[in-house]
Structure formats: C-alpha cells, structure tokens
Task: inverse folding
C-alpha cells in the first residue's frame, strides 16, 4: 500500500490566509502550506475530495487517471467539493468511477456528473462492510462511526464516518479524520486490528475549549493510548496527525510533542510506503560557524521532548583547562533528566534508541575529528589517506542508514567550514572536504535543516522540492 497525503490541513488550511497569529506567521516563514486533508491510496482510491485535492495532485505530479473509487467521510466542503467530477467528463477514462459517501454528501455529487460519464454513486452508513474491486486487487473497507457531531443539528457532521481499509497486500489503514474522542463502541470495532498506518485527526492543538468533534493535544494522546490498549496500533504502526490547523504550535514544536506519544507530522505531498520503517522525516540538522548559537538552538528543540539522550562526540575531559571548562559549561546547562553518552559510534546509538525518544548529537565535526584520529586518517601517504577516506564514507553510510531507519527523533549539530579560504595544510583541506560530504549526506536524511548565523536561525529549504 502506497499512500500520498494530498493535504494534511483543516478546512481553512494552515496557515489561515487571513491570520497573523504566531503559528500562521511561523509556517509562512518556513514556506509551508497545508491544504484540506485528502489521501490517495495506490493511485486508485481517493479518501475525501475537498476543494484542493485535484490541484494538489497536479502540483505533486500525481495523476487521477487510474482513480476507480472515492470514499467520502462526510459532506463538509473541505472534504467534498464535487465540481471536479465535471472535469472527468471532459475526458474518456474508459472505466467506471465509484463514489461512496453518506446520504446527504452523496446528493451533493449528482449535479456534477457529466451526462455521459460512467460514475456510480453508492450510499454508505456507519457499520457497513464494502468490497471495492479495482484492476489491481480488492480493498476491504469497514465504515465506522465518527464522533463529529456537536449537537447543533449539523446533519453532515452527524453522518460522518471513518474508514478501516485493508489493501490487496494485506496492509491496513485507519483513516480517522474529523472525529472527537473515541467511544467504547468504536474502540470495540477496531480491537486487535493492528493497523499499519493511522491517519488521525489533530485539529485543535492547544485550543481545548473548542467543543467540536475533533481532537486536540490533550485528547490526541489519550486516543493514541486507547488505540494501543485495544491493539489497534502496535509498536510497528505509523501514526500521522492530519487535519491540522493554526490552533497548533508551529510544526517544529508540534513534531516534538507528537513524538512523545509516537506519532508524527508530515508535509503535504508526502508519500508513505506503508509497512516500511519511517525515514528521517522527524530529524533536524543544525549547522553554522563557531559560536553561532547552534548548540543552544539544538538544546532548545530537544528540551521539548521528555526523553532525551545527549550524544557527546568530543574528547573527554583531560589536561586542557579550557576544554574542560567548555565541557562543564555544556553539562551545566543541560536539564538534569537528560542522559549523556560519550561516543563516536553514532550508528549503533541511533539504532538502539527507543521509538519516540530524542537523540541530540553534538557534534559531527568532532565526530569526524575523532574518527580520523582513530583510523590514522591524517596520514600524508596517498594510499593510507585513500583507505582512511573510504572508511569515513563507510561510516557515514552507516550513520545515514541508521537515521533513515530509526523511529526516534534525532537532532544533529555540525560546523560549516567550507565558506572560508582554502586551508593551507593538506590535513585542513582533507577535513574541510570530508565534513562537507558528511554534512550534505546527513542533511538529505533530515526533514529540517537550519543554518545558524549570529545566534539567529535560518531554515534551509530544498528548492527542488515542491511544497504544498
């Protein structure tokens, strides 16, 4: 099962275009936009079809040409904007499109179906079991009741459903947007399901007095625990928060809070190959010059996590009083509950880290220095130097592999040494070149990369990546 998130935002998206709150301002500064939540499964099954779903598909280079089924949770306009059905009638796909939706939502689709378009409408209610036939296999779908109603007579909210989907490859997806806290009846229906992927509502963040049928940062962790207690999720489940609004803290802070309950947040357009281990979506790479504030910035981010291990790669205290004073200063400013481990075996430390924990690695420049010392990498003999460089590349491969396969959050600090003059010595040039390679490799495995200048953080975006 391959799932693409065409949107991860709430009805107004995030940032809200009319809002100047700190959360919206932070997301704009980061160049991040979240559109209303929708997901495409294996290219043939669309979950919700709001006003931006079709445009998002085009923006991310995704086609709806093989779309055979659309499942609609309810008829609120951010989940169903049926005008895009008319566009389908302007081409000839050559097969029937099936739309599955609650009664009132289904009625909203009728006027947008072209007169000669092969579209079939199927009314659904909570508690049904569906068999969706596609050209690549059958999908078993169970419709479950959402706790979306607020008691104000909103029929569209009251008929909302959630979807329990089993793909032809036996992977299971729980699509649970627009729901408040789970009731006992729903939990009983998903007992023992062991979902591979859960897309779970987390609309209201730190706004706890909303009174709507959604989750927030108090009820989301409780829902996660209930899913664990019912064996609906296991340690192997991937839980992604969706339907996000500006009532949440900025993404970096939200990511840290969600990691505490073993969930994560991803950008619009993210493709999830269900069943594979999570790659470095939660990692943060921080680099800058000497005394630029990079360590303090990294520690500030790590402090948002409840379980932090500080991986110190520098030389242990010795006879140098200046170096000893630096070590003491670093130790004194760390929270008392943080665990410190002095090591340069970073790959092993990352592999051993528990899911949801946080590792702070400070720093890669010292890791490279000590590793070169260990393997006699400063040799001026060309043959010995070549062997040493090959070993550095091998250890960098191990580090990157560990980053890509861990379910812990990893924050890495490194020096930027490539912006000055060419070093006079061969060892200086070797160090500069190797650290540049290490930094570039690590940055590719990190969701966030920040450059520190004079104590100011500057987020670095991949200009080759189209953001939603």
Result:
């Amino acid at each position: 099962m391959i799932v693409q998130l065409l949107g991860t935002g709430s009805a107004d998206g995030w940032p809200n275009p009319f809002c100047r709150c700190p959360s919206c301002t932070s997301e704009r500064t980061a160049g991040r936009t979240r559109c209303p939540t929708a997901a495409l499964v294996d290219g043939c099954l669309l979950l919700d079809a709001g006003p931006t779903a079709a445009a998002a598909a085009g923006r991310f280079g995704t086609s709806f040409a093989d779309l055979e089924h659309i499942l609609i949770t309810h008829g609120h306009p951010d989940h169903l904007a049926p005008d895009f059905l008319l566009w389908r009638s302007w081409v000839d796909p050559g097969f029937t499109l099936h739309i599955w939706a609650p009664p009132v939502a289904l009625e909203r689709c009728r006027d947008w179906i072209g007169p000669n378009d092969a579209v079939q409408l199927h009314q659904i209610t909570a508690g049904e079991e569906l068999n969706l036939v596609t050209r690549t296999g059958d999908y078993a779908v169970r419709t479950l009741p959402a706790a979306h109603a607020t008691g104000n007579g909103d029929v569209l909210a009251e008929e909302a459903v959630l979807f329990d989907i089993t793909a032809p490859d036996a992977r299971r997806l729980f699509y649970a947007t627009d729901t408040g806290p789970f009731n006992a009846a729903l939990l009983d229906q998903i007992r023992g399901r062991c979902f591979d992927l859960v897309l779970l509502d987390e609309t209201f963040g730190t706004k706890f007095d909303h009174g709507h049928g959604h989750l927030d940062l108090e009820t989301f962790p409780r829902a996660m625990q209930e899913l664990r207690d019912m064996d609906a999720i296991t340690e192997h489940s991937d839980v992604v928060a969706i339907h996000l609004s500006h009532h949440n803290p900025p993404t970096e802070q939200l990511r840290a809070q969600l990691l505490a309950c073993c969930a994560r947040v991803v950008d619009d357009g993210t493709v999830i190959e269900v069943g594979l281990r999570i790659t470095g979506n939660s990692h943060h790479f921080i680099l800058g010059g000497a005394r630029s504030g990079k360590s303090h910035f990294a520690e500030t981010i790590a402090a948002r996590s409840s379980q932090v291990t500080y991986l110190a790669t520098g030389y242990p205290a010795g006879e140098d009083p200046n170096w000893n004073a630096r070590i003491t200063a670093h130790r004194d400013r760390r929270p008392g509950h943080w665990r410190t481990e002095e090591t340069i075996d970073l790959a092993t430390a990352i592999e051993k880290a528990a899911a949801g924990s946080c590792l702070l690695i400070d720093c890669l420049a010292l890791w490279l220095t000590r590793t070169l010392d260990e393997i006699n990498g400063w040799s001026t003999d060309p043959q010995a130097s070549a062997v040493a460089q090959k070993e550095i590349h091998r250890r960098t491969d191990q580090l990157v592999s560990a980053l890509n396969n861990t379910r812990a959050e990893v924050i890495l600090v490194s020096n930027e040494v490539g912006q000055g003059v060419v070093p006079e010595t061969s060892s200086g040039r070797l160090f500069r070149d190797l650290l540049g390679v290490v930094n570039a490799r690590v940055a590719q495995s990190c969701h966030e990369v920040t450059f520190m200048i004079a104590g100011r953080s500057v987020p670095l975006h991949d200009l080759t990546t189209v953001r939603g």
